[in-house]
């Protein structure tokens, strides 16, 4: 057994400086080149930190701050040994700060508070600390034991102290691993590469992955032929604590799934077969809507979701769940997957009674798919910002909601006297109590909450002068074409038909 590098999840509210801080660490502490852009994904990379005790490796997991990516944050914390809770010294505690704190508490790992943006003119470190106290989070020096450090991702101030605190937290946890054991860990991301097929990013929590072995993650297996480190460089061995990318899985592994290495293809296939059998056993648990509930749905709108990496579809589903529901329209996710939008996706979205929608996140639309979508009337849109996708999807669903003709009351008048009723025409006098009464309008005559008849206002008079409209409070004489004789005390209700 030997010491294992700490795996660190960086969490916090959106725009609180996580990426800027990690960019600084990456530029200053990653030995070879860049580690790739930090975007709306779970990114993993290794850094080196030199202090008086030597050179130490630290693995960082960057998690998105937007609330839609809660599942990614949770997954990052599940595999982490230590969390860094990033809080802007300008803003203090925000909604996703509290969500991140809850997730940290759920997985029961130590955490360090990093107050960022201390170089900004609006920074107020003491106020930011107090915002934590208001939520019963007690920092060191303020009655508690939660370590903290003030940092700047721009100047690097405080970054060395933060890395020292991370190493200390790992040391207190007594992190260890046996690199001679078979590798095991968690799948943190997956994608479909057009040239290389199914690829997945794995974190090695114990043991090692070596060339020539096989990785099993649920039903997916992969020979360890092409293995890369976080820089995209080919490696022969993935050591404990490292993020590695494996190319060539038989199918895309489920993000969050555990994986382990085996010596032979036969062993891998046997384990995958067991996982498939278990999955089949658990199938058929999909809830079917009761018949009476199905009857309420007028339209089923098919939705296909395609993303660049497997974890992002969770964020899209999260945004979909937040959209207003209408019992007249069921938005049914008929497929969600990884990779470019294909002809097959379009056929799936266009197979229902109503042409569906395809949303893509950081993916391309194949030319054949684009042409087919135009022919089938399937709406296709691709985004690279999650909230833009959510806004567009919400608007498109709203446009497709079935419209029903409803009656909207526009006025009410009491009949004071009926002068005559001949040949379906009533001459009467009354007073408008609410809204307006207009010539040519369709009205209902109500008697004790029951509809007596419907008719049309033929003419109106006010103070013996012909008018087109009577406002609230006005008295009038009227001729109304009506199918039944009204009486004094009845009410006239004016209405218009609207589509809702």
CATH fold label of the largest domain: Rossmann fold
Oligomeric state of this protein: single chain
Largest sheet composition: 7 strands, antiparallel
Total number of β-strand segments? 29
Overall pLDDT? 84
What radius of gyration results from the CA coordinates? 33 Å
Query: What is the total number of structural domains?
Result: 4
Spatial sequence of strands, sheet with the most strands = 13-12-17-9-10-16-14
Using the 3D structure, state the CATH architecture of the largest domain. 3-Layer(aba) Sandwich
Q: Please, what is the CATH homologous superfamily of the largest domain? A: P-loop containing nucleotide triphosphate hydrolases
Query: Unreliable segments (pLDDT under 50, ≥5 consecutive)?
Result: 31-42, 65-69, 284-297
Could you explain the architecture of this structure?
The strands form six sheets. The protein has a seven-stranded antiparallel β-sheet. The chain folds into four domains: 2-175, P-loop containing nucleotide triphosphate hydrolases (Rossmann fold); 184-281, Elongation Factor Tu (Ef-tu), domain 3; 291-400, Translation initiation factor IF- 2, domain 3 (Rossmann fold, 3-Layer(aba) Sandwich), CATH 3.40.50.10050; 405-499, Translation factors (Elongation Factor Tu (Ef-tu), domain 3). The protein has eleven helices and 29 strands. The chain is of the alpha+beta class and 500 residues long. The radius of gyration is 33 Å and the shape is elongated. The longest helix is centred in the middle third of the chain and has 18 residues, at 265-282.
